[in-house]
UniProtKB/TrEMBL annotation:
SMART domains according to UniProt: PSN (SM00730)
Assigned GO CC terms: cytoplasmic side of endoplasmic reticulum membrane; lumenal side of endoplasmic reticulum membrane
Domain of life: Eukaryota
One BP annotation, GO: membrane protein proteolysis
TM stretches of this protein: 52-70, 82-102, 123-147, 179-203, 231-253, 274-297, 303-321
Protein name listed in UniProt: Minor histocompatibility antigen H13
Positions with biased composition (Basic residues): 404-417
UniProt membrane topology term: Multi-pass membrane protein
Amino acid sequence: MAVVPIYIGSFESLKGVKRPKNAAARKKSNNPLEDSDSESESITESLSANDAWMFPVFGSAVLFSLYLLFRFLDKEYINYLLTGYFALLGCAAVAKVGLLVSKKTMPAGILKHVEKYKITINVYNASFTFIHALLLAASIFLTLFYVLTKNWIASNVFGLSFAINAIQLLSLDSFKTGMILLSGLFFYDIFWVFGTEVMVSVAKNFDAPIKLVWPRDIIGVLAGTLEKTEFSMLGLGDIVIPGIFVALCLRFDQHQAWQHNPKGDFRSTKFARPYFMACSTAYVIGLLTTFVVMHTFQAAQPALLYLSPACILSALITAAVRGELKELFAYSTEEDNEDAKKNKNESKKTKKDMVTAVEETQTEEKPSPNTAAEEEVDTNADADAEDEDYVALNAEDIKNSPKISKKKKGGKKKNGK
């Protein structure tokens, strides 16, 4: 079960890699469940070397805080709170993984009859189909089933969904960061498992889907002959932490393949995967070693004691054999993420400038009240000037004309007399 989320999450993490400028854009898919190219190139949360150094410190603080809570408070109420919190997160995680599985397994004959709807809320656009609604309803039902029964199978479904989403969304910016993280958690795991009772105590009392469990006597469980079922458990941290390192190896394989063939399809997953295969194999060997030692000594084992060296050495040995140690340590995804953010900001700025230009054009075309008033004053002034010229011309004509009006008037008076 631990290998499944690592494999799926690693390939899904490739969608977070920014497409090179010289790579052809992905062809638009007819699948109504597929995201657009811009959505598929969403920027993941990248861990830097500083984050890797502080990870064991914050992890220790959280772990010890939980230990104190379970020790001095009623664990029943704590688990109620944690169950509600993880149930909400799990509902979304299960729906997302269900959608991913539907994309890969649903026949094209059914998908072509699925209508796609778009909903817009303020600045957020989302596309959905009947399948989205069906998956959401199924995840809500599974959540209620888990909350009411605490069934171990439902718990594992939530755990696998959490692991897949975490490996997809979290990424390491370089192999240096990955090695720092695995090395730090190597000592973290040893101290809290072998040095104290804290890790084991929290794992047993923490009743939430943050671990994968499996019955030690699966035959007895299936037959229903056991009064009490005992489980072996594996924390999600022992899956996610090595998983993001395995995903980094896969992205490096993609990078190397593109460097050797820049004219190919960048989004294709059909490329040589030596680092991914080596690291995945090392993870399986390390995990098997953990369970063998655990059953041999009948004691809890820190899985990262075996997984961290296995993953680190597999990448280093593969690079040494292939003569790519320099390329391995020079590889960084931070530049890709910065370019993605820069392009996103430039796109927003371009849209804003276009809107501003349109508004300015509309403003220039529409005369302002002051401009209209000035034009009206100018028009009135021109009209007054024309009237003055007309009056002046009439006055001059009258002046030059013969004066007969007074004589006529005087003649009338004379006759009247």
